[in-house]
């Protein structure tokens, strides 16, 4: 006996779904497991390796394909099926199972820990920490994170009542750079930056950003010229600090000078700089030398390993 199935039903198994709601309709595409994230990160570029079938569904689990009329109404009558699939693939919500979700979170977690371990050092020895030590330090912060997010200071004795006091009481004090753990919805790089800020702020173990090693080149003819760009404001008196010469200002950015010498018509200095000072130094050299000077990165993070 032949059993006829509806022509718009396709049975698929072992798939990852990407779902997009548009014009009050929900559309789905069926993809191979683990391929969606590779596509979105640029690792996978062949659409055929991502899609199980080149169709748009209303419900993949029931094998119900989307009628052409629904697609035209939601995406526009001139939009091709391939363009619709790409929109769903790039903008849709990835539906993953519990095992996949756990594996994805673990991959992001390991990547975050690895990035942080390569960027932070013991401030005394300048040596890197193992990934295990960084992981434990983040766990210490994470266990305190949820409580710290809503820390509220106790009211001072004899504090006056009034609208200002009520408003202050209504707004909980939020601690800066609270770490509550890795999530799967943000990139590992951005989460690693958050993790580093939290570790540096709260110091569960002694940490500091590894310094950058730079080479700065500047024409000797302008070294003794007075710096033209505005110098920082002195917080004590609110007045502008002495600008100094171009050479003085360049050296003020460098924490530790390794070598400085004159090579032909250029003065060259190599040294170590805090990562936060890199942009300011680059802008200053570029502006003062009108593009004749250079700031070159020799090492993004100088560390010592056992």
TrEMBL record:
Transmembrane segments: none annotated. Residues 151-162 have a biased composition (Low complexity). Residues 14-101 form the Ribosome maturation protein SDO1/SBDS N-terminal domain. Keywords: Cytoplasm, Nucleus, Ribosome biogenesis. SUPFAM superfamilies: FYSH domain, Hypothetical protein AF0491, middle domain. One of its GO terms (cellular component) is nucleus. It is found in: Cytoplasm; Nucleus. The keyword Nucleus applies. GO terms for biological process: cytosolic ribosome assembly. Its main location: cytoplasm. Residues 142-172 are annotated as: Disordered. Belongs to the SDO1/SBDS family. This is Ribosome maturation protein SDO1. It comes from Venustampulla echinocandica.
């Amino acid at each position: 006996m032949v059993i006829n199935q509806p022509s718009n039903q396709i049975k698929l198994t072992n798939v990852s779904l990407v779902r997009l709601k548009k014009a009050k309709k929900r559309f789905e595409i069926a993809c191979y497991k683990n391929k969606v994230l590779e596509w979105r990160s640029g690792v996978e570029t062949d659409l055929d390796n991502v899609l199980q079938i080149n169709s748009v569904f209303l419900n993949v689990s029931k094998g119900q394909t989307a009628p052409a009329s629904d697609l035209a109404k939601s995406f526009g009558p001139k939009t091709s099926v391939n363009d619709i699939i790409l929109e769903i693939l790039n903008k849709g919500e990835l539906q993953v199972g519990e095992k996949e979700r756990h594996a994805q979170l673990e991959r992001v977690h390991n990547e975050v820990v690895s990035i942080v371990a390569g960027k932070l050092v013991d401030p005394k020895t300048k040596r890197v920490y193992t990934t295990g030590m960084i992981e434990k330090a983040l766990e210490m912060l994470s266990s305190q994170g949820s409580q710290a997010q809503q820390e509220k200071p106790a009211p001072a004795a004899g504090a006056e009542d009034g609208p200002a006091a009520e408003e202050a009481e209504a707004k909980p004090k939020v601690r800066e750079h609270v770490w509550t753990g890795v999530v799967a919805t943000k990139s590992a790089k951005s989460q690693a930056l958050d993790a580093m800020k939290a570790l540096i702020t709260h110091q569960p173990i002694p940490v500091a950003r590894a310094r950058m090693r730079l080479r700065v080149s500047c024409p000797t003819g302008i070294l003794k010229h007075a710096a033209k760009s505005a110098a920082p404001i002195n917080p004590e008196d609110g007045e502008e600090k002495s600008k100094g010469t171009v050479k003085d200002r360049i050296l003020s950015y460098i924490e530790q000078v390794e070598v400085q010498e004159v090579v032909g018509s250029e003065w060259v200095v190599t040294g170590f700089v805090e990562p936060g000072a890199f942009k300011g130094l680059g802008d200053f050299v570029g502006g003062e030398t009108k593009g004749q000077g250079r700031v070159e990165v020799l090492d993004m993070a100088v560390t010592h390993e056992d």
